[in-house]
Amino acid sequence: MRIAIDGPGGSGKSTISKILAKKLGLIYIDTGAMYRACAYVSLRFDLHGDALKEFINNAEIDFLQDDGTQRVSMLFQGSEYDLTEAIRTPQVSAKVSEVAADKRIREILTKKQKNLASRKNVIMDGRDIGTVVIPDAEVKIFLNASVDERSHRRYTELKEKYPDISYDEVKDDLMKRDETDIKRETAPLLKAEDAVEIDTTGLSVEEVVQEIMKTVKKKRAAGENI
Ligand code: DC
């Protein structure tokens, strides 16, 4: 079974995907982490445009399940770099939408993602999974929540690591990213026509998981071999 989960930042995609992956025995692939890894490389090595494309084309992005947390690493010229923490900084968050709007980068990452999805038993989250990466996914979900709820979730997460960060800063960054992700020309953030939309505002994690499980069960009851 392949599950595609799309939605804006802070809508709960990664939290929900990790739980469902465990419950259903699927491999979780966080495609946002792949775009974040590209943004990190761009900032760290001052690489842009074709030079960044060249680097990413020759690198491998790997996911490793490590006791509940997912570690993200990049393999480049025989060396492996653990980027798990580095891709979550406010600097990378501020840069990532610009990198994700670059057609050349999207082309490479979409190809890598389609390849990963061909393993079949995956739950993949992002912005264009149901529309572009796995348009034939058996289950498609679009998560959403009010901008205030999403900002509060992100703020609570970030506050632990960056005590000086302000709520307004987090909300501002989230809104800017929403706008770039929705307006970009290639593979914008969009609900697939056949996706089930869930507004997670005010819902607990368990309630959202149950809602998605209903869709999975419905498909199974309808005789779909998933
Ligand atoms: O889910 P996230 O916040 O970690 O995603 C980081 C950025 O990557 C976000 O601004 C949108 C972009 N992204 C994308 O364009 N396509 C995807 N499939 C996943 C993420």
UniProtKB/TrEMBL annotation:
Give the chief site where it resides: cytoplasm
Query: Where do the Cytidylate kinase domain residues begin and end?
Result: 3-217
The record's GO CC annotations read: cytoplasm
The keyword Nucleotide-binding is annotated on this UniProt entry? yes
- Coiled-coil parts of chain: none
Q: Name one GO molecular function term.
A: CMP kinase activity
Which InterPro entries did the record assign?
Answer: Cytidylate_kin, Cytidylate_kinase_dom, P-loop_NTPase
Q: Which UniProt keywords apply?
A: ATP-binding, Cytoplasm, Kinase, Nucleotide-binding, Transferase
Q: Which CDD domains match?
A: CMPK
Residues holding ATP: 7-15
**Catalytic activity, per the record?**
CMP + ATP = CDP + ADP; dCMP + ATP = dCDP + ADP
NCBIfam families, alphabetized:
cmk
- What family is this protein classified in? Belongs to the cytidylate kinase family. Type 1 subfamily.
For this protein, the record's HAMAP family field holds: Cytidyl_kinase_type1
Name of the protein? Cytidylate kinase
Q: Which gene encodes it?
A: cmk
